[in-house]
């Protein structure tokens, strides 16, 4: 995973693959123009179409810890890799999985050479999560998710303490999310030491998702250029 990064979680805000692909292509242009890494976490059924047509890293939003065989409806690390995903979100507040499954899935993703973005809902879980060896820990207080009130502005201590806590495993990045909506929200997250931001509603509910991502990417670019 290249950082600093913006991870846009499409969640279930868009069900048309054609529209999701258009959004992805416009975000790809923004990423190229500003030279800022942007990854897209898309519904599993969209991974192949989007990853085949867009050069951004494409992530799943969830995977199951089931093995090959009699498991109905499972989405596994191998399936998403085959579809073209670079990695996946794991244990999102809206899609929790058991701790033992988290550990197994991180291991499986790692052996497949894929990224794992392990979500936690509070700063106290950042260090234990980092010790499980994911590519990144994404901390998101659930009460701010979808609220338009950004974690970096409303609860800056969550970001700064998480940045410290993740250092328990030097190879793990720290990403923050929940309510990230503006250029200033991203600037603040980066000033506090985050390696990136995760965002969903501000982008996907906008009439111009790429313009919102452009503001986020400009914040990362400007912060990078700052002395
Ligand atoms: O994965 C993304 C997060 O849940 C943030 O969602 P939000 O930007 O709508 O608050």
TrEMBL record:
<dbReference type="InterPro" id="IPR000652">
    <property type="entry name" value="Triosephosphate_isomerase"/>
</dbReference>
<feature type="active site" description="Proton acceptor">
    <location>
        <position position="140"/>
    </location>
</feature>
<dbReference type="GO" id="GO:0004807">
    <property type="term" value="F:triose-phosphate isomerase activity"/>
</dbReference>
<comment type="similarity">
    <text>Belongs to the triosephosphate isomerase family.</text>
</comment>
<dbReference type="GO" id="GO:0006094">
    <property type="term" value="P:gluconeogenesis"/>
</dbReference>
<feature type="active site" description="Electrophile">
    <location>
        <position position="92"/>
    </location>
</feature>
<feature type="binding site">
    <location>
        <position position="145"/>
    </location>
    <ligand>
        <name>substrate</name>
    </ligand>
</feature>
<protein>
    <recommendedName>
        <fullName>Triosephosphate isomerase</fullName>
        <ecNumber>5.3.1.1</ecNumber>
    </recommendedName>
</protein>
<comment type="pathway">
    <text>Carbohydrate degradation; glycolysis; D-glyceraldehyde 3-phosphate from glycerone phosphate: step 1/1.</text>
</comment>
<keyword id="KW-0963">Cytoplasm</keyword>
<keyword id="KW-0324">Glycolysis</keyword>
<comment type="subunit">
    <text>Homotetramer; dimer of dimers.</text>
</comment>
<dbReference type="Pfam" id="PF00121">
    <property type="entry name" value="TIM"/>
</dbReference>
<dbReference type="InterPro" id="IPR013785">
    <property type="entry name" value="Aldolase_TIM"/>
</dbReference>
<feature type="binding site">
    <location>
        <begin position="200"/>
        <end position="201"/>
    </location>
    <ligand>
        <name>substrate</name>
    </ligand>
</feature>
<feature type="binding site">
    <location>
        <position position="179"/>
    </location>
    <ligand>
        <name>substrate</name>
    </ligand>
</feature>
<feature type="binding site">
    <location>
        <begin position="9"/>
        <end position="11"/>
    </location>
    <ligand>
        <name>substrate</name>
    </ligand>
</feature>
<keyword id="KW-0312">Gluconeogenesis</keyword>
<dbReference type="GO" id="GO:0005737">
    <property type="term" value="C:cytoplasm"/>
</dbReference>
<keyword id="KW-0413">Isomerase</keyword>
<dbReference type="GO" id="GO:0006096">
    <property type="term" value="P:glycolytic process"/>
</dbReference>
<comment type="pathway">
    <text>Carbohydrate biosynthesis; gluconeogenesis.</text>
</comment>
<comment type="function">
    <text>Involved in the gluconeogenesis. Catalyzes stereospecifically the conversion of dihydroxyacetone phosphate (DHAP) to D-glyceraldehyde-3-phosphate (G3P).</text>
</comment>
<dbReference type="InterPro" id="IPR022891">
    <property type="entry name" value="Triosephosphate_isomerase_arc"/>
</dbReference>
<dbReference type="InterPro" id="IPR035990">
    <property type="entry name" value="TIM_sf"/>
</dbReference>
